[in-house]
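Q: What would this chain look like folded?
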Amino acid sequence: MRKLNKVMAVVLAGCMLLPGIGASADNETAKSVVITGMDREVTITAEKNYSAESENAKRINIAIPDYAKGKEPTAMEAFTVDKDKTVNLKFDMIDGGTAEDTCDLTLYETVDNNGKTIKTVVGTIENVPLKTTVCIAGLNSDKKYYFTVQSKTKSGNASFLLLIESQVKTEWDYLSVLAQYGLFEGDETGDFATYNNITRAEMAKVLCKALRISPDSYNTQMFSDVASSHWAFGYINALAATKIVAGNDDGSFSPDREATYAETVKMLVTAMGYAPRAESLGGYPYGYIETAKKLALTKDIDNALDLPLPRYTVITMMYNALDVPFLVQTGFGENAAEFAVADGINGIDYMTFRYKLTGRKN
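A: My prediction, written as structure tokens:
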């Protein structure tokens, strides 16, 4: 059983959503364990004398194996987490034992392994008193999770009160993920200027970062108003060379002009390979807007096509795009090129922004 190697005696900010946690700083049994995953921070906290009472709580009975014979848990309790939700789990363990009886609680998640779904350990919190509530915060994915309990002192049955609390994620949650990937950066004071409108140059940088394109390799000036002295020279040239942007009819790019909603959507849709589909639906702007809508890139976004786009809206759009498979060219037909969705099926390699950034699927 894999054990977590980072244990702290204080309650972390990741658990502040849970009422009552951290109320007794001198509690010797309180622990926090931080598991840094691909795009999230999962916090498992054990807090003595905490009650998880709710009308929505689910009472679970789970068998604890014979600890004296060293048997591993055979029963797994499952739960699911809706996509784009932050979930807090509260296990209020009740049984006939005493406060000195302890157990280990292990959390598992399902992951894809070459087309097969397997269970992998997220983490274990050890020596939890049975009269304790365990809180798990920070789970956010469209997966199934499991937990098991291994008694350290006794066998039998344990009763759990399982309470799942969901909070819809906000732009700030999205920003924490995208900033971790390096797509957005704050200034020297940590300000991400989320309410400022994004410029065309800034959007070029975001897409280059998301596609892992190095601007240093693109030193030929592509537009009349983007000289080598411009901070986004390499980023803009890179997108032009890869035909993600084309600039204005007069050969300029207007790098410092605020990007409109329609322009931003076109850049993103094209970066993901879906320009052929957008063109088949009528081209710019409505074909690109419709394509983005079908891909759920503009979910929860309502903006006029010709108005500038605030950075916080771009943050939402880029987060929506993280796990959407790209469209890639697979060959040439009799009259046109052939394309396929890069979803890892039928011999097509899997490709998304997140996969480019991490080498891992969600």
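The longest strand covers residues 116-129.
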